[in-house]
Amino acid sequence: MIIRPASPNDAQAICNIYRYYVEHTSISFEETTPTTEEMKNRIVDFTSNYPFLIAEDQGKMLGYAYAHAFGDRPAYRYTAELSIYTKHTDKGRGIGRQLYQALEDQLKKQGIVNAVAVVTGSNTNSLAFHQKLGYKIIGRLPQAGYKFGHWEDTVWLYKQLAKPSTLV
User: Fold this and answer.
1) What does the DSSP assignment read for 18-50?
2) Where is 123: in which H helix or E strand?
3) pLDDT digits (tens, 9 = 90+) for 145-168
4) Right CATH number for 2-160 from 3.40.630.30, 3.90.226.10, 3.90.1150.10, 2.40.30.10?
5) Of 44, 119, 125, 131, most Cβ neighbours within 10 A?
6) pTM score > 0.90 for this model?
7) Helix or strand holding residue 61 (H, E)
8) What would the DSSP string read from start to end of 75-103?
9) Which of 83, 57, 55 is nearest to 68 (CA)?
């Protein structure tokens, strides 16, 4: 397996992985899968400032992880929000761990101090995954989203990637 940067050419394969989560789960709060063109635009937007990584094996995409702005105010620039999706048929193979490690390594090199993940409260696998990687639960927003006839909480997790310093 290799980890590499995403490009707009990966948009269709990313949509293929993401579609399952949008159409069959509350893991994503999106209700319609983005088009390939919309995903291309997201890749271009996210990669202008943050890493967007692909895991693939023998040319087949297994998953992806990316970071994006935590907030749109300048003072948030040292905090990034992370997202990860792997093929739903490829769980438990260490793909997510390798993607997150590579993503965190790149964020550290960029000077990012804090990583935040926002996870659906019922997604116990993702909560356990993040906690195993050192993320701490820092909050819960009850009934933050409504999908498939159910209210869903969101859980906020946090990991310090680097020691904050006095920036000049």
Assistant:
1) HHHHHHH-SSS--SSPPPHHHHHHHHHHHHTTS
2) none
3) 999 999 999 999 999 999 888 664
4) 3.40.630.30
5) 119
6) yes
7) strand 60-69
8) GGTTEEEEEEEE-TTSTTSSHHHHHHHHH
9) 83
